[in-house]
Specification:
This protein is mainly beta. The protein has a single domain, classed as Jelly Rolls (Sandwich). Helices cover 10% and strands 47% of the residues. The chain contains three helices and 15 strands. It has a six-stranded antiparallel sheet, with no helix packed on it. The termini are far apart. The model has no long low-confidence stretch (mean pLDDT 93).
Length: 175
């Protein structure tokens, strides 16, 4: 399948951070979080980056997120801890090259992702126009708990990482 077929089959829609998504699960059980209100104990989405929308722009969530790789091309991640440490990871099938099948992003970390257009180790003859993952969020996702990065703030607070991050910060070209 290609990206457009997956978007149609999985009934995905454009996401505010880039890419495409659909919520696939939300727990009925709720958790009251002081100052945030009620949240489901867990929610899950499909998330797809494509050639047409290859970047999940830098953002942070208050909840922990587990990412599960399903297929397509590898996806590179940039994470910034609350202490300002930059970490990198790649989701994909090529475990021998350091790619991984799961990624845990703790709440409070900044996160960005980008589809890598290259041949996958297991299918060397094929270049994918998508990367497909699922995310499990606990407590469950709510847009009130998500913050898209502002280029000026990121450049100021993480100047030592700016050259590497500016390509995954929405509106960075306006600076």
């Amino acid at each position: 399948m290609n990206a457009q077929q997956l978007i149609q089959e999985l009934q995905l829609e454009a996401h505010i951070e880039g890419g495409f998504y659909r919520r696939s699960y939300q727990a009925e059980a709720q958790l009251d979080i002081p100052g945030r209100g009620s949240r489901p104990l867990l929610s899950s989405i499909y998330y797809l980056l494509s050639s047409d929308s290859p970047i999940g722009y830098l953002h942070r969530n208050r909840s922990d997120i587990l990412h599960y790789y399903h297929g397509g091309g590898p996806i590179d991640y940039w994470l910034i801890s609350p202490a300002g440490e930059l970490q990198r990871a790649t989701l994909g099938y090529d475990l021998a090259a350091g790619q991984q099948l799961q990624l845990i992003v703790p709440g409070g970390y900044w996160k960005a992702s980008r589809l890598r257009h290259e041949k996958q180790a297991l299918k060397r003859s094929e270049i994918f126009d998508y990367g497909l993952i699922s995310e499990a969020v606990s407590p469950g996702f709510d847009y009130q708990d998500m913050e898209l990065a502002e280029a000026q703030v990121i450049q100021s607070q993480y100047s030592e990482h700016w050259d590497e991050l500016k390509s995954v910060v929405k509106d960075a070209e306006k600076l």
